[in-house]
Amino acid sequence: QSQLVESGGGLVQPGGSLRLSCKASGFNLDPYNVGWFRQVPGKEREIIACIRTSDDTRYADSMKDRFTISRNVAKGTAHLQMDNLKPEDTAVYFCAAGNGAICLTPPPYYEYFYWGQGAQVTVSS
């Protein structure tokens, strides 16, 4: 069974940092593009950043200066470093794997076909 598992979420104060991790289970993550997404209840899921198999990265404009995506080919993992977090960053965060020439795409993100279960990130004092 192929699965992605996120970890590293939790509660953090405004201005704080979190590092989310995504690990593949049952398949190799290395051949795929990886994206990080977030969703607030009642709102549309949005892409945050993605990293291609070449390690080329792309970011949504609003997250470019505060979030950093990376991957570890040896461990088969991907990560999202989140700095200077704001209350508006509160959401469920998902990692996903897929393919395609362009990784930063609009909804419905059909090129991503492996998805994690989501990790809650809450930014509050």
Listing every helix as H and every strand as E from the N terminus to the C terminus, the arrangement reads EEEEEEEEEEE
Look at the helices and sheets and give the structural class.
mainly beta
Indicate the radius of gyration in whole angstroms: 13 Å
Unreliable spans are none
Portion of residues in beta strands equals over 45%
The rough form would be described as: globular
Q: Output the number of helix runs.
A: 0
Helix content: under 10%
Q: How many DSSP E strands?
A: 11
Oligomer class:
single chain
Mean pLDDT: 94
Largest sheet: 7 strands, mixed
Question: How far do the termini sit from each other?
Answer: 39 Å
Word description of this protein:
- This protein is mainly beta.
- It has strands at about 5, 10, 20-25, 35-40, 45-50, 55-60, 65-70, 75-80, 90-100, 110-115, 120-125.
- Strands 2, 4, 5, 6, 9, 10 and 11 form a 7-stranded mixed beta sheet that branches. The chain has a 4-stranded antiparallel beta sheet with strand order 1-3-8-7, with no helix packed on it.
- It starts with a strand and ends with a strand.
Note the main attributes of this structure.
0% helix; single chain; mainly beta; 125 residues; 7-stranded mixed beta sheet
